[in-house]
Amino acid sequence: MSLEQLADAYRFGNNRETVLAVASGISPSEIGEHGTTAVHIAAENVDPETLELLLSNGHRAGSTDEYGRTPLHILAIQRWEGRVSKMAECTDLLLSHRCPPSRRDDSGRCFYHIAADMHNFPMIAIIGQRKVRCDALIESSGMNALHLLCEGASRYDYIRESRPQEFVEKDSMCRKMAEWLVGCGIDPEAETRIGRRAIDFAIENRIKITSAFLGGDGSVVSGGMDLPQAVIVNDPEAIAAIIGSGADPDALCDEKGDYFGMTPLMIACRRMALESAEALISGGASGTCTRGTDGTTALYHLLKSLSSTVGTGPNGRDSQRLLRMLDSVVTAQGDVDLPVSEDAGSALCFVCGEDRLGSTSDGKPVRTIAFDRLLSRGADVDARDGRGMTPLIRACGVPGCESENIVCTLLEMDADFDARDGDGMTAVMQAASIPRDGGLDIVKTLFDMCGPDLSVRDSKGRDALEIAADSDSKGVLSFLMDRR
To answer: How far apart are CA 464 and CA 420, in angstroms?
Structure first.
């Protein structure tokens, strides 16, 4: 009998007697392609009866193939649903016959790394019952079996919303496997080479029953998370529970990374996490807090959220969601004209002077959406930023149709068209300073709707015509000379 015949017996669905008869005739010394043994083949088919026969006939449980895999490695990757008892029995047999649990394959994995990664519940159960030492790390990443278990929970994300009860059952299963692995010597606080713990993976994948166990927190609602973590996964229920337990809703995030020094509300705004933002505001979070490193507020991070890939999340990003968040944050802020950063001035000043705020998922520009909403909330059209620029002056410095529309609206609302910034620049000067006639249409709009004073000079002694000449704006210069 040969290994090929044994593989064929499984492949063609031969009856039990045939499989056992073929297996009994195979020599323990026979090795097939890629170093495969009969024990490997029986393990691949999760067949405890044949395994027991082979092992009792002198076949080695710990033989390795050309890839360094023992039968336990092969067993670990097999589907176990529907054959729980067979998977457990095969694992127990191989361990009882001294298949070495610490043997690594060519990728550096022990069998229990694979079992944890694959969420092989019956195999992990046997590991836990036997107290197999599982604290070895995967060399390339520094991950242990517990890290892999929690990271692998991402495979259940697709059922979290559609089949929540099934997701809870998977979470409970992960929690039990985590308990077994901790009992096998794995430190739940151990970090990977990039500083991540098992609980970090569990929180990321929203397995709250598991993360509550790993965090030593009895509350499954909060799942062992702190406020920034709950915001990142957009879990309003956890946010309410954490704040209810006494957490400061405005505490700054002290984890190094994209969110360092930000309040939970800032993080929610940067990620467009509407539910989290509303839960934080309901829990007392303030919109007036500033980030220590740059003086930015939650409103600033909301306005920038769609123009940056930093810290973005999978949350909805349509215009209605943006408007709801903007209204919530402005209400929490209390004053629509508070500076959004140290230099940018009010939110209206900021959006008027920014041409790269991105677009919502339904194709609407954030700049226009925010501009209209801020005006409807009573924003001051003559507010000043850190350089003394008004919304009109800032808008006149950005070329394009969107700026023209903003300029028209501001002028219709009686914005001061002759106001001067800290450098003595007026709105028309700012438009004239855009290189190569980029501000020509804005200059024309200003003259269509008002009569800018062309005799005014900036702090360098230049009037609008001289500024146009300096910016190589021949069309603007010609237009202004005709109206001098």
So the answer is: 12
Alpha-carbon distance 353 to 98, whole Å? 71
Spatial separation of the C-alpha atoms in residues 89 and 424, rounded to whole Å: 84
Measured CA to CA, the distance from residue 467 to residue 477 in angstroms comes to 9
At position 89, the amino acid (one-letter code) is E
CA distance 59 to 40: 10
- Phi and psi of 135, rounded to 5°? -90, 5
d(CA 209, CA 224): 9
Return the SS3 of 46: coil
How buried is 450 (Cβ within 10 angstroms: 0-12 exposed, 13-18 middle, 19+ buried)? middle
Q: What is the dihedral of CA 369, 373, 375, 378, to 10 degrees?
A: -160
- Specify whether the backbone of 223 is left (phi greater than 0), alpha (psi in -120 to 50) or beta: left
DSSP letter (8 states) at residue 143: B
pLDDT of residue 218: 58
Mean pLDDT for 97-116 is 94
Its pTM stands at 0.65
Q: Tell me the two tokens of residue 60.
A: 């080695």
* Secondary structure class of 138 (helix, strand, coil): strand
Q: What is the mean pLDDT of residues 443-468?
A: 87
Report how far residue 276's alpha carbon sits from residue 230's, in angstroms, rounded to the nearest whole number. 8
| Separation of alpha carbons 309 and 412, rounded Å | 36
DSSP states along 317-349: --HHHHHHHHHHHHHHHS-TTS-SBTTTBSHHH
Among the listed residues 425, 328, 413, the one whose alpha carbon sits nearest the alpha carbon of residue 379: 413
Q: What gap in Å lies between CA 129 and CA 114, rounded to an integer? A: 18
DSSP state at residue 359: B
Beta bridge partners of 143: 138
Sign of the Cα pseudo-torsion (121, 122, 125, 126, in order): negative
Cα–Cα distances in angstroms (integers) from residue 11 to residues 4, 7, 260, 330, 454, in the given order: 10, 6, 56, 66, 90
**Tokens in use for 433?**
């300073």
pLDDT at residue 310 tops 90: no
Of 108, 104, 114, residue with least CA distance to 77? 114
Q: 3-state DSSP call for residue 365?
A: strand
Q: Helix, strand or coil for residue 100?
A: coil
d(CA 124, CA 329): 47
Q: What is the mean pLDDT of residues 449-462?
A: 87
Q: List the end-to-end C-alpha distance of the chain, in Å, as a whole number.
A: 105
**70, two tokens:** 């023992």
CA distance 474 to 435: 10
Q: Write down how long the chain is.
A: 484
Structure tokens at 418: 């002759």
CA 268/CA 443 separation, integer angstroms: 39
